[in-house]
Amino acid sequence: MTKNPYYVWISEIMLQQTRVEAVKGYYSRFLEEIPDVMSLARISEERLLKLWEGLGYYNRARNLQRAAIRIMEEYQGEFPKEYEQVLDLPGIGEYTAGAICSICYNLPTPAVDGNVLRVMTRVSEWNACIDDASTKKMAREILLVLYEEGNCSDLTQALMELGAVICIPNGEPKCQECPLRAMCMARKNHTYANLPVRKEKQQRRIEKKTVFVLRANGQYGIRKRADKGLLAGMWEFPHVDSNMTPSEAMTYLSKQGLEPVLLEREVPYTHIFSHVEWRMKAYYIACQNQCKELNWVAYEDLEETYALPTAFKAFLEKEL
Ligand code: SF4
Question: What sign does the dihedral 288-289-293-298 (CA atoms) show?
Fold first, then answer.
């Protein structure tokens, strides 16, 4: 694994709540265009979000840039080398700071994430809930004792790899290939399926939406979301928070200063966020004019320039 802190930082942020396979393409594209802290600090937010498009959690991308600007201003562009300095950067928590400092600088700074907690709770049949901050704190304290000078980078990477590849979350862990099998209590007592203990997930809130994929003079009408909240600052197709019939949709658009001439088709799509589920229905509508309230852009520009979150990009793909 690379020991370049910039690379480790970007990969760890991308990997939060996303699988390695899903991130690979994003990671190489990102580094090709933004190879270092200086280029990250200088890139336009619009382009940054475009490169992040599809990964979700867009504030993470913004925090990357905020942190890069701080590194330029406070550390002359060189990635800080002390745990507390790294932890102090925007968007970097204990896990990421621990991973960067142990992997890149060989410091005894445990990186405790879901993978590592799964291994730890199974090996010792530890029944504490891993969603509790106190469990993570205790895990860090236990690991601190295990970190030996000179071997910190290897230990962090070994634990991460073990959790990601051998002691897997869904399905049966690959105990036969596990170097910890001789000491593992969960393997011995066949309790691995019950570990780790998690809090019950809250039900997602369901929101209904009618989305308008409007086309006029060969261009599509889009608008920018508010600066705060879900998908802040991203582009979107206009929509309303209700389930409209086709005739209600046409009437609504007429009241918005548009002249809708043809409802070409209707496409349903559900997008799931962590706490909310959008049940959407899109109407693809040809219009005679372009209203001032929307930005009208060509299909190619929507593809290449404007950052459309997956919830809306799905309709663009269905347009082909
Ligand atoms: S022996 Fe099996 S359950 Fe125990 S840590 Fe290894 S893979 Fe996980």
Answer: positive
Q: Which atom of ligand 1 is the closest one to the Cα of 119?
A: 5
For 5-122+133-166, the fitting CATH number among 3.40.50.300, 3.10.180.10, 1.10.340.30, 1.25.10.10 is 1.10.340.30
Series of mean pLDDT values for 10-residue runs along the chain (320 residues): 92 86 89 98 96 92 97 97 97 96 96 96 97 95 90 94 93 95 96 94 93 96 93 95 96 96 94 94 96 95 92 80
Cα–Cα nearest to 307, from 109, 52, 117, 75 = 52
The CATH H-level superfamily of 205-319 is: Nucleoside Triphosphate Pyrophosphohydrolase (3.90.79.10)
How far apart, in whole angstroms, are the C-alpha atoms of residue 149 and residue 106? Answer: 8
Return the ligand 1 atom nearest residue 166 CA.
Answer: 7
Residues classed as catalytic: 12
Place of tokens 């190879």: 35
Q: What is the pLDDT of residue 170?
A: 85
For ligand 1, atom 4, the nearest C-alpha belongs to 184
Q: How far is the CA of 124 from the centre of ligand 1 (A)?
A: 10
Adjacent-strand bridge partners of 314: none
> Is 173 touching ligand 1 by the criterion CB < 6 Å?
yes
- Directed axis angle between helix 5-15 and helix 94-105, to 10°? 150
Q: Which helix (H) or strand (E) holds 158?
A: helix 152-161
- How is the chain split into domains, by residue range? 5-122+133-166, 205-319
pTM of the model: 0.85
Identify the pLDDT of residue 160: 93
Determine whether the shortest distance from the Cβ of 185 to ligand 1 is under 6 A: no
